[in-house]
Each structure stands twice: as C-alpha cells, then as structure tokens.
Write a structure and sequence with these properties.
0% strand; mainly alpha
Length: 30
C-alpha cells in the first residue's frame, strides 16, 4: 500500500516535470 502510494506520487511528480520541460523547450524555440 505504501509502495503503491509512493509509486503514484513519483508518477505524478514525473508528469509535472515533463510538462515543465515541454514548456521550457517551447519558450526556447519561440
């Protein structure tokens, strides 16, 4: 249960990081 929650949190954090990286790349390109 704890491991599952930790995995879910990591996935959520990774999604946020990926979105930020995509936004940064778009800003650099434009």
């Amino acid at each position: 249960m704890v491991a599952f929650g930790h995995f879910t949190f990591n996935s959520f954090a990774n999604n946020i990081l990926q979105e930020k990286m995509m936004k940064l790349k778009r800003n650099i390109e434009s």
